[in-house]
Design goal:
single chain, 465 residues, Amidase signature (AS) enzymes, 11 strands, globular, binds glutamine
Length: 465
């Protein structure tokens, strides 16, 4: 079975017709895992009951009760809770932590009969752009194992390219679904903030986090999205997205984003993608987004502030790793020093600093004000255009160790972070390859709650590839 090229759509169809079973699919994924996981380090755990789940799914399909996702093997990022299973967020701190309830989206996927094949490696607490920050070793990009798969959902995206799952779930706080999808030649989508309930997904930065699908095609990503989207009373930020798809055909291009630090081949490929869209009847106009260039600066104040707050509960007393000290503070210090990696500690320190008395107004409050200006800038621009298009990343997948300077690493999210700052939906879709065979991603953004529109333009583009 050519599982590396099999889509969820096709597999679902074949299962409905009785040409394929979930047990066949899951066995094929397990075989690829068996062969390649040691080298690529994609799964932190393969669930021992995956075949059991597949058998149950096959019975549901036989009884005629199946959905589009019944029997489809999915990989789950290691920060999404599944009852009774370990969930470590790629950290030593939570190495043996077992989830006591299902995340909202897990409940939905279970109801749909999806099969969970295992939990995927990630940057610790979703902080990173390369999966080099995992406490359990780096994930290698299956397309070129000398390169990173992107991050922080690098394990989830790599699992789909490597034929170890047909689709995957990731989280995106500043680009962690879209950037690795782009590095691995896949589709990755970040819903409108609140579109998918965050209940049961570990918080990195609560005002920015969203959960979304990774898949080979836009249709596949949409199948997963349609299953997990919806209002949930357990998440007070949860919203209902617009049910209609009524977008026009005007695409804005923020030329000022593309001026510096973008790979020449990426620019060339991006222009070619715009030409294709024009041929499909889309109108391309230049737009000016003067404040959006501050998105990354705002992100690196607000995000660490929220990280330092969210991770304060991991203190060696309530959850996770405990290293006994001489007194309570010593226990906190020893536990947190042993449990957290360098990047996590860097962000906790940064976050505590911007929230501290005396600096709060200068940094944290100021950043929130600028965030509102950026939100307004996007709101206004979407009165003039229906979509914004940019490359997903300024470079294709880079080599391990290439971005040792954290600031260099942070710049890989320059195009993806603005959608998190403003909460709008955004997608990365494959749009070609570099001269050395590395995939490129095209990013679309649209106005708040119009997630459906993003799928329709992406399906249009995909048809014409
Ligand atoms: N790479 C970004 C960061 O390190 C985004 C992470 C994410 O989206 N989870 O913060």
């Amino acid at each position: 079975m050519d599982i590396k090229n099999l889509t969820i759509e096709k597999a679902g169809e074949m299962m409905q017709k009785g040409e394929l079973t979930s047990v066949d699919l899951v066995s094929a994924c397990l075989k690829n895992i068996e062969e390649k996981n040691k080298e690529l380090n994609i799964f932190l755990e393969v669930f021992s009951d995956a075949l059991e789940q597949a058998k149950k799914a096959d019975e549901i399909i036989k009884s005629g009760q199946g959905t589009l996702l019944t029997g489809i093997p999915l990989a789950i990022k290691d920060n999404i809770l599944i009852t009774g299973r370990k969930v470590s967020a790629g950290s030593k701190m939570l190495e043996n932590y077992v989830a006591s309830y299902d995340a909202y989206l897990i409940k939905k996927l279970k109801e749909a009969g999806a099969v969970f094949i295992g939990r995927t490696n990630m940057d610790e607490f979703a902080m990173g752009s390369s999966t080099e920050n995992s406490a359990y070793g780096v994930v290698k990009n299956p397309i070129d194992p000398t390169r990173v798969p992107g991050g922080s959902s690098g394990g989830s995206t790599a699992s789909v390219v490597a034929g170890m799952a047909l689709g995957a779930l990731g989280t995106d706080t500043g680009g962690s679904i879209r950037q690795p999808a782009s590095f691995c030649g896949l589709v990755g989508m970040k819903p409108s903030y609140g579109g998918v309930s965050r209940n049961g997904t570990m918080a990195m930065s609560s005002s920015l986090d969203q959960i979304g699908p990774v898949a080979k095609t836009v249709e596949d990503a949409k199948i997963i999205f349609d299953c997990i989207v919806g209002k949930d009373e357990m998440d007070s930020t949860s919203i209902e997205i617009n049910s209609e798809n009524k977008s026009g055909k005007k695409i804005g291009v923020p030329r000022n984003w593309l001026k510096e630090g973008v790979d020449i081949e990426i620019i060339k490929n991006f222009e070619e993608s715009l030409e294709k869209l024009k041929k499909q009847g889309y109108e391309i106009v230049d737009i000016d987004l003067p404040y959006s260039k501050f998105s990354l600066a705002v992100y690196y104040i607000l995000m660490p502030a929220e990280v330092s707050t969210n991770l304060s509960r991991l203190d060696g007393v309530r959850y996770g790793l405990r290293k006994e000290g001489e007194n309570m503070f010593d226990t906190y210090k020893k536990s947190r020093s042993a449990g957290f990696g360098a990047e996590t500690r860097r962000r906790i320190i940064l976050g505590s600093y911007v929230l501290s008395h005396g600096y709060y107004d200068a940094y944290y409050n100021k950043a929130w004000k600028v965030r509102h200006v950026i939100e307004k800038e996007f709101e206004d621009i979407f009165k003039k255009v229906d979509f914004i298009a940019t490359p997903t990343t300024p470079t294709p997948a880079f080599k391990f160790g290439e971005k040792k300077d954290p600031l260099q690493m942070y710049l890989s999210d320059i195009f993806t972070v603005p959608a998190n700052i403003s909460g709008i939906p955004s997608i990365s879709i494959p749009c070609g390859f570099s001269s050395s065979g590395l995939p490129f991603g095209l990013q679309f953004m649209t106005s708040m709650k119009n997630d459906k529109n993003i799928f329709s333009i992406s399906i249009d583009f995909e048809k014409n590839k």
